[in-house]
Amino acid sequence: MPIAIDEATQRCTLIADNMHIEGEAREVTIVTDESLRMSVATLAGQRMPITEQEADALTSAGAVDGRRHLKNTEEGSII
């Protein structure tokens, strides 16, 4: 799991192979990356793809939720 949240302090850490960034949950912004077709967490200018479960956990801890739903516009799509 590329995130860790300390529920007592509301601090979170974004963890990847070459990245380990810590900050207040309220400093994290979660957005939808249209090209990746998934959520991305941004903290201290660094971006990290995350799962929807991780996005929900971060927003519950106080992160800013800037996600939006993407719609498929291809012909024949049921969406």
Automatic annotation (TrEMBL):
Gene3D superfamilies the record matches: Protein of unknown function DUF3203
Pfam family, one: DUF3203
Stated name of the protein: DUF3203 family protein
InterPro entries, per the entry: DUF3203 (IPR021564), PA2021-like_sf (IPR038079)
Superkingdom of origin organism: Bacteria
Organism of this sequence: Pseudomonas brassicae
